[in-house]
Amino acid sequence: MPVVNYYSLKSNILRLFQSAGLNAKDSEIVTDVLVESELNGVSTHGVSMVSAHIQKIQKSYNIHGVLKPVKEGDCFTVFDADNMIGMVSAYQAMMFAINKAKEKGIFLVLCNHANTFSAASYYVQMAVNAGLIGLSICNAPSQMAPLGGKEKLLGTNPLAIGVPAKNEDSFIFDMATSVVAKSQINDAVHEGKRSIPLGWATDENGIPTDDPMKAIKGMVLPMAGAKGYGLSVAIDMLAGVLSGAASLDKVGRFYPIENGCMNVGYAFLVMDPTIIWGEDFYDKADRFLNRIRTSQGIGVDNVIAPGDNRQKIRERNLVEGIQLTDRVFEELNAVAADLNIEAFSWI
To answer: Is the peptide bond before 158 cis (omega within 30 degrees of 0)?
Structure first.
């Protein structure tokens, strides 16, 4: 499998989006979100999605869309995302929340008429980079049944939280409310695997299965049973119902490519800890995280805080390069050929 230098990957992906007709600023945003996901080891939300996003740029996204405020209060704004590319609308919405939180201490942004935004952790990282606490939630197309049911009603609805520290690595937590993302099952099918772990998914009748082909037609299972189910419902109500977006099985699907706006809902909550608590918050966060990381382990050298493994993957990939599958590598070169630009020259 090809191993690609991070900077080479980023410049080549940027070239694809610009050649597809996306403006320079939006191309930078979309490229950064997807390549950062790849760098952090979240390949299901990374450059494997480039081809599909470019097709949707050509067929269904509103690449000239703008965030339109539809309701505002002292500490919240609801935006219509105007069927923009999900990463662009989410980036703009989070930047708005960040700037407002610096004024008010806490600010909530909700979005409707939006599209899938890749990894939720990217947006809380934006807040953390600004010294702020961030929470990012989003609903998604239905892939799970309610507990005890067999109708696809709930998405894998992700949740991410980021808390900045001073000298310690910041806390970045990102999870789906399902055991795995549906894209992991798709990857298993693409890679020709005959089985997936039992407990990931059910067939279309709600019976647990380890057959990836049956799982594709079926449903993913919630993480931790009733707890994942409850979180998925909560996120759908906050990001979907409260924002005025679609919810439950009314959220549109990413595929087919010609599908219009998914009407996904976002919620971004940003807090300025220096306004809420004080400047010494970051020292307190350091002591908190250090206490976890230096606590006694069982058969391990270091106890980790949530998100530490992704940071290690990121550091390794920056040094050693990012490994792509042959399938993704071939797809990227096929996109380049379709856009009449030279094939990638990886360094």
So the answer is: no
**In the chain, where the domains are located:** 1-59+308-347, 65-178+222-276
Fold of 1-59+308-347: Hypothetical Oxidoreductase Yiak; Chain: A, domain 1 (1.10.1530)
Task: Say what the pTM is.
Answer: 0.95
Contact 59, 260 (CB under 8 A): no
pLDDT of residue 181: 80
Q: Over the range 110-122, which residues count as b (16 or more CB within 10 Å of their CB) and which as e?
A: bbbbbbbbbbbbb
CB 17 within 8 A of CB 30: yes
pLDDT tens for each residue of 89-99: 999 999 999 99
What is the topology classification, in CATH, of domain 65-178+222-276? Ribosomal Protein S8; Chain: A, domain 1 (3.30.1370)
DSSP type of residue 40: T
Tell me the Cα Rg of the chain: 20
Copy the structure tokens of residue 116: 């899938």
CB neighbour list of residue 280: distance below 8 Å, 6 or more residues apart: none
